[in-house]
Amino acid sequence: MSAEAAARTASGLIRAGRPAEALEILRGIPRSAAKAPEIRHLAGLAQLALGRVAEAEAELRKAAQKAPRSPAILRSLGDCLLQADDPKGAEACYRKALSAAPGDADTAARLAGVLLYQGRREEAHERYRALIAAGAATPPVLAGFAGSTEFEAEPPELGSILKLAAQPGLGAAERRMLHFAAAKIARDLGRPDAEFEHYAAGKAAQARGFDVSAFARWADALKQATPPAFFAARSDFGVPSGRPIFIFGMPRSGTTLIEQILGAHPDVHPAGELPFFARAVAAAGLPDGHAGAGGEGLVGRGLAALGREQSVRLGEAYLAGIRSAAPRITDKLPHNFLHLWLIALVFPRATFIHAVRDPVATCFSCFTTDLGDWHAYTRDLPTLGAYYRVYRDLMAHWTRVLPVPIVEMRYEALVATPEPEIRRMLDAAGLGWDERLLRFHESARLARTASYAQVREPLHGRRLEAWRPFAGKLGPLFEALGDLAPEAAAPG
Questions:
Q1: Are 289 and 346 in contact (CB under 8 A)?
Q2: Do residues 139 and 177 touch, judged by C-beta distance below 8 A?
Q3: SMART domains attached here (predicted)?
């Protein structure tokens, strides 16, 4: 196969979501041709799709050195640097790409997005307005526009948002994005009925539903397969490093806030949401509970097959993938609560922090946030409430059986009395006090999740009970939560 044909094939595989196959094709290209910027660009895109950010950056930088005026390569390098927690570098790449192709709306939208991500809302808002005026009112641009300012009057762009959201041929993710943009504007304007209507419409656009009964069966099988004896028989597993601080819990429970606080410590690098253990479980052929019916039968056999040498290799690979030289790193993938059996075996000396928030507040925040297709359990209130109960029961099990201490951090307590709660976290992690942790919102280190805007603010309790004005619409959630929904939550 010629280099040109290999490049075409690899490009198609990347677009089809098959980056590993694309890399195999690219590795077969003769070395002289493989150094071409187009080939390095494709290799970088494939590595990035596989989550190998450092490898992707190396390939894309080499491609950019060979083709310093290529808008496509500069855009891809910017995307990679954003994932590598370098928004300034990403911004520089997008600006160079725009300089090379001034009319490129895709690059302009990326630049506006990275400005918004850095908290430069006015700059971002002006760029979004310019894009809309130029006829580039795509769903991401309209969503960014809605999120880049607080509205005191209904903007004319709302009409464009609603019109586009109603188009029958629109993709599920784009329709969801637009409804959440409309909900944000309705919230700013004090229109709770319209706000909730758009949240519900956005969630209804979710590409697929979620089998919460299958998830519950999987969790039961996992609990049965991991009694205390399971861990006692594996007390020599893992690596001795205590470097990681794992932060987990339901989305919207405060994991980002906890990481941002700890990340303000000079000895801590906030690594964000690392999918390492989710990928390790998938690579071992184990279900994670989100795959639907049938997976529960594989749990016991799969867990028993894990050997000591494999646990050591996993720990070494995890540490080798950390780019920072900081003494401690945080890993705040919320759904690591699904994999705590494995994480505790691989890192028995790590710090484990469980972020907990009021059940109704957590579920309401999940429902009113566009979390993406993987979080299909947030599509409707009954499923979300049932999912929360399974999560709560699984965490109770881990607290009983894991051979590691789990520090529970309650969001409400952290907001009300931050210093003693922060000191409690630091004590658990073996870290000394630093006043900068109380000023975490001033840190240049940024969160890369749906909570990025909130962690730019000092601690406050304005959203603690954001659900209460909507209590009359939350009956299905209260019913699914059962005794986890306080009596005061009942409407009327």
A1: no
A2: yes
A3: TPR
Q: How far apart are CA 204 and CA 194, in angstroms?
A: 15
Checking if the pLDDT of 453 tops 70, the result is: no
Give the number of other Cβ atoms within 10 Å of residue 373's Cβ. Answer: 12
For 198, the token pair is 């758009």
Alpha carbons 382 and 211: distance in angstroms, whole number: 12
d(CA 50, CA 20): 7
Q: What is the pLDDT of residue 492?
A: 42
Residues 112/144, Cβ–Cβ less than 8 Å: yes
Q: Is 20 exposed, middle or buried (0-12, 13-18, 19+ CB in 10 A)?
A: exposed
Report whether 177 contacts 370 (CB < 8 A). yes
State how far the Cα of 134 lies from the Cα of 335, in Å rounded to an integer.
41
From the CB of residue 235, how many other CB atoms can be counted at a distance below 10 Å? 10
| Cα–Cα distance measured from residue 213 to residue 491, given in angstroms and rounded to the nearest whole number | 27
Enter the pTM of the model: 0.88
Question: 290, 386, 267, 285: which is closest to 337 by C-alpha?
Answer: 290
Q: Which residue has the tokens 């730019």?
A: 456
For the chain, what is the mean pLDDT?
91
How many of the other CB atoms lie within 10 Å of CB of 486? 12
Question: Which residues pair with residue 352 across a beta bridge?
Answer: 246, 406
Residue 157, pLDDT score:
95
Task: Answer whether residue 441 shows pLDDT above 50.
Answer: yes
Per residue in 323-351, pLDDT (tens digit) is 788 999 999 999 999 999 999 999 999 99
244: helix, coil or strand? Answer: strand
pLDDT given for residue 289 in this prediction: 81
